[in-house]
Design a protein that fits this description.
alpha/beta, six-stranded mixed beta sheet, about 25% strand
Amino acid sequence: MTILQAEHITKSYGGRTIIEDINIELHKGELVSLLGVSGAGKTTLFHVLSGLTAPEEGRVVLSGEDITAKPGRISYMMQKDLLLPHKKIIDNVSLPLVLGGEKKTEARRKAEPLFAQFGLEGTQYQYPGQLSGGMRQRAALLRTYLSSDGVALLDEPFSALDTITKSSIHQWYLDVMERIDLSTLFITHDIDEAILLSDRIYILSGQPGRITEEIVIEEKKPRPADFNLTEGFFRYKREIIGKLALGGPQEGQA
């Protein structure tokens, strides 16, 4: 079942077209990656999908409803965790509920049971500065979930983590997605990360940015721990590198 659609999205800033005629969809329970070089317009697309900005053309549809330029329906997590250092973790993660009009005690009550599912049990009354990078990202993801309508947009959320922590949090996030029935659209520059996590990968390239390819990762989840060492993995990687190279210089590029 399709839960999120971007239909013919075009967005410009200062007279320059950043993305043009973008069509993508996210099915329920999927993790779909958006992969491309810097400047192709991935974050601009997320701003449109989340309702932070309106497109010149096209629309965004969530579960059959047109939500174009309507913020607050889809949660959006940027690269930095943006946890407030002076607030306890439970108040950081429940902040979207408070901003939505709920009282602090009720927001805490709703957030509390999810701490165990997100591997954060015992951190509720600590401050962000007391947590590791991986735990801070888990807290940020819990906050994102509490502000979501079943869909999360993640903009390179794991890019600042070391390799070992990133590998661990990848599997954790896939497990959490399945448990809480979450669908995810994921920006990354990391080809390996996209292959390991995704059900499908959209390649965005050119200036203005356009979807030039959709790649389906056929291996079922959960994938073997050594999937990144298999010939199948390297076949996907070679294909993606080739598609990115074919994106080539377009309008506005030297």
